[in-house]
């Protein structure tokens, strides 16, 4: 029996050793890909306030000082910021440290000067780290290289957590005995006997249950680690692995991320009192949470400082000075500090097309993303505030509504912000990428574009907004109605699109064929053409907000399709470029035709279903967009763009319940204040193609008219567009002049 028991114990120990060696070997040197935001560019004339630059510096871990000197610091002056940048390897090369002064005037960058007083035309701030691509969702860390672990941190961990770390073999029998005596005398657990290696084992492989079997497994595994790895490797793994707090659904692992999360600094920039606070939190990250229990955390920090002085890690006077410091933490930004799970998931998905998951989690890649942190924060706040406002105004239960937003730069196809739900820092269901919902009238620009592509229509063409019956393949008849149940009779294509007339749109779509509409959607950016059913004409196709952003990005980009991208470049551990993601442009349609569609989308804001946007927007800002509402008011959409920003907003309920909101009353009320507060966006003002000619048409009928005799709209239409003049407008002489000009142009060609 004894022999069998020995064999069993030996086998079990070997099994535990196999687990330790295989899992630790594949993980302890893992270097997850580090993801950075897009760098903030500064140049004279840019619309940017000083506080916005300060926020970006803080994101990147810069410290405010009274006297400049060290890299990674800044000093505030009257209307200025003096900065000493750190050397940083951008995607296009290493930039050395430099000292600059940025001056501001009237909420703009007025000038940038180097330390010699010479003008600097443009500079980039070091981008903020967003996190790492780590295998486990809900976990985040910034892995610290062994050379970047401060000596003080290693000494402090040993002094406080494991004084005999450099001597024991994984378990410390002396510490266990000492802790047992103390606990028996106190009648409660006051000390633990676990070594740093045992704590590492528990974090890597085991649960927190207090059982004898777990403690025995922990001891065996700790000894195995000590047999096969040196102390520096174990200390490095501990520094990167240990749990140090919670940020909503995100677990904060490792001192590298904790220093960012609590202090907005890199680990090497921490001061003594800050490092002591992190070491103090090890004993109980929730119990000593400095945000929730600052006094309790301070008492523990001061005890750590006293221990460090008593054990000759620091001088006594250093401990006295450090204890005078209050606990000063960086403000939590929304649901998370520089943690954007919805955007990070998009980064993951795009990288998976070129890299294996194992490469992303272990090879130490550097990923430069397209995220604009200022835009992301604004988008998160606007969505949350907008949903709360809608619920309050409509007496809906708090939390009933959900939403998602995608923001892009239409010209570069860069994704600037992604919000997957009202709890933006929650690493859960990503509605921006995964919620497929009917898009309603958002599809109508594709219907009217397909009509223009036939060459038989222009925005001035007449169409009947009258009841229509559409026979379906199953033998039933579809009879769509307008949203307001009104019948508008003969109207122009411009008005039908601007005011989103359903009957006119279905009539037009059936005349050209739904197949053309499905094909137009595919060319504008969908992965594949949707089913060409009559119901497609009113948006009976399920798309995600990201899908919609792809289609509308092609509209905003003048008919040129460019795949949306969240990644700009990937570097290896040596700073060499592995991949670059340049913009890839394909002409999706005739730009002259798309130019006309965009004119109609501008009118959506000026006099159509999106006109309530003017309650938020400056009158001088020209924008274009379209509302969308699904059946029974289940989904509220708005997609719109300026000259620099495109945003798609979806509002609805996760259980698909009716919300009672149209695209205008719901999503638009979030989109408009979002665009109004962007700050550095320009009007949508595309250059007219050479093939178009300015004309005036009556808005309702599409007849050529003048402001003196009708309600008119100025349009740029193809020069050869046949236009019928409105009777009584005196347009005969004008038309004669236009025709003479055309004859002369043809003769001189």
Describe it for me?
The structure is a single chain. The chain is of the alpha+beta class and 749 residues long. It has five domains: 1-30 and 165-238, Penicillin binding protein transpeptidase fold (Orthogonal Bundle), CATH 1.10.3810; 33-38 and 340-435 and 543-587 and 612-621 and 635-686, DD-peptidase/beta-lactamase superfamily (Beta-lactamase), CATH 3.40.710; 39-126, Penicillin-binding protein 1b domain (Penicillin-binding protein 1b fold); 440-540, 3-Layer(aba) Sandwich (Beta-lactamase); 692-748, no CATH class. The protein is 37% helix and 18% strand. The strands form eleven sheets. A five-stranded mixed β-sheet has the order 11-1-15-25-26. A five-stranded mixed β-sheet has the order 3-4-5-8-9, with helices on one face. The protein is elongated. The model is unreliable at 333-337 (pLDDT under 50).
């Amino acid at each position: 029996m004894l022999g069998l028991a020995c064999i069993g114990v030996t086998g079990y120990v070997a099994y535990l050793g196999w687990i330790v060696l295989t899992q630790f070997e594949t993980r302890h040197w893992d270097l997850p890909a580090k993801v950075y935001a897009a760098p903030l560019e500064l140049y004279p004339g840019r619309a940017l306030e000083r506080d916005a630059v300060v926020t970006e510096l803080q994101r990147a871990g810069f410290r405010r000082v009274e006297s400049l000197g060290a890299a990674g610091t800044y000093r505030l002056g009257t209307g200025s910021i003096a900065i000493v940048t750190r050397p940083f390897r951008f995607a296009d090369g290493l930039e050395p440290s430099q000292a600059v002064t940025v001056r501001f005037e009237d909420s703009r960058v007025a000038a940038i000067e180097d330390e010699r007083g010479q003008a600097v035309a443009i500079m980039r701030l070091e981008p903020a780290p967003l996190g790492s691509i780590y295998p486990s969702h809900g976990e985040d860390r910034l892995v610290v290289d062994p050379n970047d672990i401060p000596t003080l941190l290693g000494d402090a961990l040993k002094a406080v957590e494991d004084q005999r770390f450099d001597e024991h073999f994984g378990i410390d029998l002396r510490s266990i005995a000492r802790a047992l005596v103390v606990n028996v005398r106190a009648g409660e657990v006051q000390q633990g006997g676990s070594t740093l290696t045992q704590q590492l084992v528990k974090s890597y492989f085991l649960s927190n249950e207090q059982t004898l079997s777990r403690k025995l497994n922990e001891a065996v595994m700790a000894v195995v680690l000590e047999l096969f790895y040196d102390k520096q490797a174990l200390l490095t793994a501990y520094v990167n692995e240990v749990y140090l707090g919670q940020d909503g659904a995100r677990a904060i692992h490792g001192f590298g991320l904790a220093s960012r999360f609590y202090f907005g600094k890199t680990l090497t920039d921490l001061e003594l009192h800050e490092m002591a606070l992190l070491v103090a939190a090890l004993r109980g990250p929730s119990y000593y949470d400095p945000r929730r229990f600052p006094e309790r955390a301070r008492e523990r920090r001061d005890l750590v400082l006293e221990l460090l002085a008593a054990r000759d890690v620091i001088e006594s006077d250093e401990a006295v000075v450090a204890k005078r410091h209050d606990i000063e933490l960086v403000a939590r930004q929304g649901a998370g500090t520089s943690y954007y799970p919805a955007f990070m998931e998009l980064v993951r998905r795009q990288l998976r097309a070129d890299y294996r998951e194992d490469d992303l989690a272990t090879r130490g890649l550097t990923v430069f993303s397209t995220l604009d942190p200022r835009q992301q924060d604004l988008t998160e706040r606007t969505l949350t505030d907008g949903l709360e406002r809608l619920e309050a105004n409509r007496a809906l239960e708090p939390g009933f509504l959900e939403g998602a937003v995608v923001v892009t730069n239409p010209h570069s196809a860069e994704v600037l912000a992604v919000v997957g739900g009202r709890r933006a820092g929650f690493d859960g269901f990503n509605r921006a990428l995964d919620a497929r919902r009917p898009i309603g009238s958002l599809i109508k620009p594709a219907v009217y574009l397909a009509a223009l592509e036939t060459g038989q229509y222009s925005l001035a063409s007449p169409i009947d907004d009258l009841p229509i019956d559409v026979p379906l393949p199953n033998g039933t008849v579809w009879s769509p109605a307008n949203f307001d149940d009104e019948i508008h009779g003969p109207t122009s294509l411009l008005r039908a699109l601007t005011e989103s007339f359903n009957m006119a749109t279905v009539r037009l779509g059936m005349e050209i064929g739904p197949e053309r509409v499905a094909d137009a959607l595919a060319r504008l950016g969908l992965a594949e053409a949707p089913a060409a059913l009559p119901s497609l004409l009113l948006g009976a196709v399920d798309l995600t907000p990201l899908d919609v952003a792809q289609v509308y990005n092609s509209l905003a980009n003048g008919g040129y399709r460019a795949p949306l991208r969240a990644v700009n470049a990937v570097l290896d551990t040596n700073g060499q470029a592995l991949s670059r993601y340049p913009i890839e442009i394909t002409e999706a349609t005739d730009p002259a035709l798309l130019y006309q569609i965009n004119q109609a989308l501008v009118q959506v804001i000026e006099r159509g279903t999106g006109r309530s946007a003017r309650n938020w927007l400056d009158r001088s800002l020209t924008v274009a967009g379209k509302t969308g509402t699904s059946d029974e008011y289940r989904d509220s959409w708005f997609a719109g763009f300026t000259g620099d920003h495109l945003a798609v907003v979806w509002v609805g309920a996760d259980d698909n319940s009716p919300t009672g909101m149209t695209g205008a009353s719901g999503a638009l009320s979030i989109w408009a204040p979002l665009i109004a507060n962007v700050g550095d966006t320009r009007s949508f003002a595309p250059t007219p193609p050479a093939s178009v000619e300015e004309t005036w048409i009556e808005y309702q009928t599409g007849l050529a008219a003048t402001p003196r005799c009708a309600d008119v709209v100025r349009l740029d239409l193809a020069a050869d567009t046949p236009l019928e003049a409105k009777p009584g407008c005196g347009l005969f002489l004008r038309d004669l002049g236009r025709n003479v000009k055309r004859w002369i142009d043809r003769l001189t060609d």
